[in-house]
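Contributing: when you submit paired examples, paste them exactly as shown. First protein:
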Amino acid sequence: MVNKDQIKGVAKQASGAVKEAAGKVTGNKKTQAEGTAEKVAGKVQKGYGDAKEKIKGAL
C-alpha cells in the first residue's frame, strides 16, 4: 500500500527535477539549486513513507 508521504515525496522529486532543469536551461543558478534541494527533500520524504510502510507491514 502507498501512503501520503510516499506520494508527496515522489511529487516533490518530480517538481524539483522540473525546476532544476528550468534553472539549467535559463542559466539561473538559484532556481537550479532550489530544484536540486526540492528533489532531495522529496527523496527524504519518500524514504520516510517507505519506512512507515515497512513498520506497518512488520506489525
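Second protein:
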Amino acid sequence: METKNAIPKGNAKRVAAIITEYRYNSHADVILGRLLGDFNYMPQVEVAAIYTDQVPDNDMSRAEAARCQIPIYPTISEAIVTPYQQGGLDGVVIIGEHGDYPDDEKGQKMYPRRRLLTETLDALEQCALTVPIFSDKHLSYCIDDSLWMFRQLRSRGIPFMGGSSIPHIPPVPSFDPALLQEAGELLVISFSNAIEAYGYHGLELMQSMAEQRRGGETGVQAVSVLQGDDVWEAMDAREWPEDLMLRALSCYPERQGAAHPRLSPEAPILFKVEYCDGFTGYVLQQDTIADQWGFAFRGDGGTITAAVSETDTDRPWKHFARLTAMIEQFIMTGREPFPAERILMSSGLINLAMEALYRKQRLETPELHIRY
C-alpha cells in the first residue's frame, strides 16, 4: 500500500496546481499526487489551490483535496488569485495531460494547454505577480500556439520549466556526456502506437542530447517522417543508420537474440530531424519494440555510444519522483534546471513532424531556427 505523507505548511513555498484531470495513473496522479504526499514522497512545497478542467467518473481530485484540506476552485483565476491574497503564491504547476479532449485531423490530442497558460498569465498579471511556471510535456499541439506560449513566458520574464521525465533518467550504461560534443548523428528508440504522445518523448530525449554538441544548438532546418515499409526501404537505401538502431537495441537485455524489427508485423515510424549545422537526429518508434527509451550516437572517429533510459515500467513510476523533485527545486529557487528553449524546440519538432506525416512530405522548419 502506498504511504501518504503530510504536505508542508507554514514557511513552505506555495503553489497552485492547474490540471486537466486527476485520476489513477494520470500525470496529475503521479506528479500532483507526489506533491500531496502520495507514493511515500516527502513534498517540500505546499499545494495551496487546485483547478481541474474535467472531473471524470474515476476522479481522485476531490478525495485527495479533502484529505489534504486544499480548496478546489471552479476557475483558474480563483485558484491563483485567492491563495495569493490569503498567504502568497510562489509558483504554478500546470499538468495539461490526460482527459476527454478531441483529436485533430493529424491525430494530435487537442489538450487546452494554451488556454490553461493564458488564464494563468492573466491571473498572475491581475496580482502583479511573476512566479515560476512548470508545464507538463510539450507546449501545444499547434506550432503557432507553441511559439506564442514561449514568447509570452519570455516577454514577461517568467522562469519556465516544461517537458517530461524522460531526459532526466540516468542512462544505463553510463557514459561521459562530453562525448556528445563531437556527435554527428543520433538515433533514439521509442515505442507505443501513440505516435504524437510517445513520439514527443523520443524527440525530447533526442533534443536534450543534440543540444550538447559543440557550439550548442543552432536550430533545425527540416523534418520528415516515414511510416511502414517506407522505413525499411529507406534503411536499405542507407538513408538512415541501421547500425545505430542495432547498437541501441543491443542495450536491452530482453532483446538479446530477438529478430530484426523489420520482421515485426508492427508498422514503424521514423522521425528524421535535419539540423542547420549538419547534425542529424532520428527517432525510430514501433509499438512493442521495447518498453523503455534507448539511443545510440556516432561520435568522433565513428565511435558509437549506446544506452537505455531505465524508466519504471509500472507503478510507482519512480522517474516521476525525479521529475517532481526537479519541479520543487525549480519552484523554490526560481532557477531553470535546463535551457527552457529545449521545450520550445521539442514542442516544435513534434508539432511539425505530425504536420509532415499528415502531408507525407519533408517540411522546411524556419520556425525552429533557434540558437541557444
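If you have annotations for the second protein, write them as plain sentences, like these:
The first strand starts at residue 14 and ends at 19.
The chain is about 35% helix and 20% strand.
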